[in-house]
Design a protein that fits this description.
The chain has a single domain, classed as Ureohydrolase domain (Arginase, Chain A), CATH 3.40.800. A nine-stranded mixed sheet has the order 1-5-2-6-11-10-7-8-9, with helices on both faces. A two-stranded antiparallel sheet has the order 3-4. The two termini are about 25 Å apart. It is about 30% helix and about 20% strand. The protein is an alpha/beta fold. The chain contains nine helices and eleven strands. Strand 8, helix 5 and strand 9 form a beta-alpha-beta unit. The structure holds manganese (II) ion. Manganese (II) ion binds next to loops.
Length: about 325
């Protein structure tokens, strides 16, 4: 299936100044950055569409903060003790935004699925930036047919509510809906410390599915290697990050700031360790809310995380040549 590109719009500033490609039939890349604008249909989300027409969306805020990397992607990176891209030929493009202007009933989440599927068919790795984590549900649907997929959910919350305000596909239900996809064989949830969506039933259902809970305190106390050993073996790992997994000192711009979160280095090290365990099939970063950000800190953290993920993929040899 080839997605039509008429609902893809070019960004005002591309991520880190990389080339823009909104015509997916012409996509020729190793990494495809893509902005998602899905909004959960919760009552308190109804004002969100008003923020979507300007620079106050998460994809645009993170793109803006990524500008410090323009013309610097070939520089030495101290995180890797090497140049960022490991001297490999790596084509990074920004595919723009899916459905940026649509809201409410006009949203077509199947377009997210179609675009991500096309990106995968073109041999590129999707790196999605979205505001509302409900957008992960159509993102994960693009992996239908994968025979060994483990979802890595990095979040303060488990997001296993069956419904909230009568809505079944909002950000509080993301991992329950994901667990219902037959191609999702296993799940690890890392950074947990928030009581929202952690009712007894939600906890029991997540554990009976086999979700591996790794609390933020366990990451701090036991270290990344011990935690990563608990992640189920799989050929492919689909990683999704809710910005509230990070400590609120480095990611204040979230709906439910919670102390005790993961550090920047912990998330970077986590993704590096997962890349040694199996192939990374896609990465998504959700839930930074620009209107709640302080001095662009959360957007800056997000931009640096994505740069580090790309460096990790390069250094692990998973992309480029
Ligand atoms: Mn969360």
């Amino acid at each position: 299936m080839t997605a039509k590109s008429n609902y893809l719009s070019a960004p005002t500033h591309s991520f880190a100044g990389v080339p823009v490609c909104t015509q997916l039939s012409k996509l020729d890349a190793d990494i495809a950055i893509i902005g998602l604008h899905y909004v959960s249909a919760y009552p308190q989300s109804l004002s969100a569409p008003e923020t979507q027409a300007d620079m106050r969306t998460a994809p645009d805020a993170i793109r803006l903060r990524s500008s410090i990397f323009i013309n610097h992607l070939d520089h030495y990176d101290f995180n890797f003790k090497d140049v960022l891209l490991a001297g490999r030929q790596i084509r990074i493009v920004d595919c723009g935004d899916i459905d940026k202007q649509a809201s409410g009933d006009l949203q077509k989440p199947e377009q997210i699925t179609g675009v991500i599927r096309t990106i995968l068919e073109k041999g590129a790795l999707p790196v999605a930036i979205g505001t509302d984590e409900g957008g992960f549900i159509p993102f994960a649907r693009a992996y239908e047919g994968d025979d060994s997929l483990c979802v890595i959910h990095i979040d303060a919350h488990i997001d296993w509510r069956n419904e909230r305000h009568g809505v079944q596909d909002g950000y509080s239900s993301v991992m329950r809906r994901t667990s219902e996809m037959p191609w999702v064989k296993s799940m690890a949830q890392i950074g947990l410390r928030g009581i929202g969506s952690a009712g007894r039933q939600e906890i029991d259902d997540a554990l009976s599915f086999g979700s591996v809970f790794i609390r933020a305190r366990e990451v701090h106390r036991e270290g990344i290697d011990a935690c990563v050993k608990r992640i189920p073996a799989a050929d492919h790992y689909l990683i999704t990050i809710d910005a509230d997994a990070l400590d609120m000192a480095i990611a204040p711009g979230v709906l439910y700031p919670t102390p005790g979160g993961l550090t920047f280095d912990e998330v970077t090290d986590l993704v590096q360790a997962i890349a040694l365990k199996g192939r990374i099939a896609g990465i998504s970063l959700f839930e930074m809310r620009p209107e709640r950000d302080i001095n662009g800190l959360t957007a800056s953290t997000g931009a640096h995380l994505i740069i580090n993920f790309i460096g990790t993929l390069a250094h692990s040899g998973q992309i480029g040549k």
